[in-house]
Amino acid sequence: MNELDSIxxxxxxxxxxxxxxxxxxxxITFYSQQVRGFNLASALVANGILRDKRRxxxxxxxxxxxxVAAGLSIxxxxxxxxxxxxxxxxxxxxxxxxxxxxxxxxxxxxxxGALVRSAGLxxxxxxxxxxxxxxxxxMRQFGTLQAHRPNALPIKVLREVTAIERxxxxxxxxRHQSVRGDDLSAASYGAVFIAIGFGRERQLGNAPxxxxxxxxxxxxxxxxxxxxxxxxxxxAGDGGLIDLCAAALQDFDHTALIELVTTWPGIEEISDELxxxxxxxxxxxxxxxxxxxYDRFIGPRLRDDGLIGEIAGRLRNRVNIIFNTQRxxxxxxxxxxxxxxxxxxxxTAADDAGLPIRHLAGAISADIARQGFYSVSGTDLxxxxxxxxxxxxxxxxxxxxxxxRAAYEANHVSWLAADSKRHxxxxxTPSAAQELDHGLAAANFPVSRHLLAAAVQLQPQRVRIxxxxxxxxxxxxxxxxxxxxxxxxxxxDRALNLECGAKPTDLGSLGGAVARLVIHARQVxxxxxxxxxxxxxxxxxxxxxxxxxxxxxxxxxxxxxxMQSAIINADVVAAELHAGMxxxxxxxVDEHLMTYLTTGSEAANWVTWRIEPxxxxxxxxxxxxxxxxxxADLALLGRLLRLAACTMEDDxxxxxxxxxxxxxxxANIIRTITLALATAEAWPNSSPRSVAPxxxxxxxxxxxxxxxxxxxxxxxxxxxxxxxxATLHAWQTSFVLLSELNAPASFEQAGQLSLSDAGLGDxxxxxxxxxxxxxxxxxxxxxxxxxxGRQAVVxxxxxxxxxxxxxxxxxxxxxxxxx
Length: 819
What we know:
This protein has 25 helices and 31 strands. By secondary structure, the chain is of the alpha/beta class. The chain folds into four domains: 3-200 and 395-455, FAD/NAD(P)-binding domain; 215-391, FAD/NAD(P)-binding domain; 458-569, no CATH class; 574-814, no CATH class.
């Protein structure tokens, strides 16, 4: 796009000096709206169109509005720009949203450069991250510019523009009022920039609704434990495609899902096919069948490379998902090629796993008389959760500017149709980048340091671990200390290349610490010429006997580089790293858990149980005492977390359990501790336990041990389903708490299996403990008790104990097991 294109695409016929940014374009992203704003400001100034104008109004403080306002202020230092925003904050959609990911270039994947995390803008630059973190960074820079332009770049929040009136032929009067409808005011401007985007999202009548940008608007875990949760996602745009993935996949993490697919071994080999399919779709027009094209050209490769199987292993159970689109086609343009691929993988994997997703085409309507009932083209539906992603109410947003909209829309449609390239994602023009750089330099604005830092961030830091002559010493090379590696558990923007010149077995305990670090740190790439690392890490992740498939770290070959080195003790480093990772995990548990216990919810939506407020208060008090004790005793903390990640007691080598404790398993760990806190109401003197068996115990007032407790968030037991194995495993504690068990435990299933059943390992039926274990899961009955309060929880646990002991006694009486 050149300078004149930027102007022609934004100007309004018959309304000189009024410009509309991005409202009628395709490929709307945070980054593309920034680019449109900067390109337009630069083109107008460079062509002298704003030469005699000093006062400008920008309507809308989103990505486009802030960018055009900043561009005008930088390129015309003597101008005054008023930014009007009807919400309470600029970038209000993105503020506070931690479940949605923003990435500047991912829309262009699989094209080269799509995975670059930095936006690469001269100003208001940012790197891929949560929507909230991106908004915070952009606002920090905008605030710095405001400080350089005192009183010349205000953002007038909670102000709604009600009219734009002509003043002769060269100016406009903008009328505005508070969102309450009072405090009417007006001011004149030489040019007006309408940057309201698409406006507010469309809703479906009075049906329940949460904004796409609200964390509550992200589909979470199934609502029910005793029956399927029916989830309806309506909308074929990118928002609908992303929410479909969130609804269907366990522990949905948008950033992690993008990384999984875009870095999957062999994915680059289908890039050309994906681009060719997109080209054919553009030439074909409406009605192109993406599913058939994907099946024919990339499906076999995706199946052979294991990506479809990987997605199948991440599917939620107990959900019935319906995907509604207006048109017959499941996938349409304009949408992201990556999002279309994700949904193709999802549908294919769901069919393979016997969990098909239902696609219904046609208009959706709500049953006014019956909440939760909807109709799609004559098909009646009963739905538990509804996610409407029908875009925005554009006409409503333009209601105060109807004459301007009518003049602009038809002209812009013709402008787009004249050149197919105008439908592609825009890029900052070289002239705009250069002029913005010059303007910032002329103002002595300290942006160059920011850009330098951004450039440095693109280059990974490097660490090398090698063997020294005398074990357990190692050679540590690189510009950072071992403990600094923990910074990458917070998903640092800067990548790290960790080179290892030794086998895992040669490193002793440090091998496990390195494995734990790289498994959970998304920005760490491991480099080694030792092939055994790949096999070992795979056994700890994709083939873990304790958890559903975890992504195996990226491994490349070692690259020689000169670095400063030191000789250090491997065991000391390993202990330091493990302790640091355990403390990091404890702090994350505390942050999420206390938010949940004090408010009843938390942003990540990892715990979806409704707990009665007084019970939550008691749990918070108990957790505070536990946390203080755990923080003071790192051995106790490590044991509690290890056992919370699996169903095996400590032994000589705990690596397979330690590696599970970290960011990728936070949801399971938090649910486990929440369950332990809730059940502690039945055992008032229970607390973390430092020795086998179990990780908790219950004691009398004098300290005498009454019972032992094992609390675990494992998905698997010895590689098998936790539902199948819960009553077959050789538990050594009196009580077992399983946060991922969503059905009542029953010993009846033991009678249906032979002791020789391959893969069942050490089954308990040949050596039952006395008395039998009491297994508590989070089934529908337990969740109801949580919602009622403490007495209901105590009663539920007592009833569970009585039921399981009776089942066990019945089997003894019938001779099925030996007492």
